[in-house]
Amino acid sequence: MLMELERASLLVIDVQEKLVPAVFDADGLVARTRWLVEVAAELGLATVFSEQYPKGLGHTLPALLDAAPGATVVDKRHFSCVAADCLPASLLEREQIIVCGMETHVCVLQTVLELRRAGKKDVFVVADAVASRSRENHELGLARMRDAGAHIVSREMVLFELLRSSGHERFRHLSQTYLTGEQP
């Protein structure tokens, strides 16, 4: 199954000020997540940022919010965005949800498992834009989501599948902007 621009939305889970320093390769995660958020914004995907207890853990990194003007920000206390019942219609009205963020084995995992259990959603987890405090927990989280039927993808898969063709009107710009030179 391929991701489709008309059917997809992006969910960025808990990339927050006080949480980011704790994850493995924090700078890389932020750079790769920003790359994905920028691509989604350029393609007009509905984007939602979740925040786990922002009063204590801070808010979504400003660099990510700046990359997605008009994105929705929701807060939660449950680890799962589904259990928190915080996901807006703009995200849920699409059949495909592309997920990135942190931590792979906690909030991302629980959200993805509950999206899958709720049915009627194809979930695509961007492996190079999710992170945990340890590589082991990251890998275990990805394996468990794959076993539950989530599609494990890369950022480049997202870009190429949403564009579908080199004839797409945005292909030249996006490939020159996001696929040349050193990548995060």
Automatic annotation (TrEMBL):
UniProt key word 4Fe-4S: no
Pfam families reported in the protein's UniProt record: Isochorismatase
SUPFAM superfamilies reported in the protein's UniProt record: Isochorismatase-like hydrolases
Keywords of this entry: Hydrolase
Domain Isochorismatase-like: 10-156
InterPro entries on file: Isochorismatase-like_dom, Isochorismatase-like_sf, Isochorismatase_domain
A GO molecular function held by the record: hydrolase activity
Name listed for the protein in its UniProt record: Hydrolase
Species of origin: Crenobacter luteus
Source organism phylogeny: Bacteria, Pseudomonadati, Pseudomonadota, Betaproteobacteria, Neisseriales
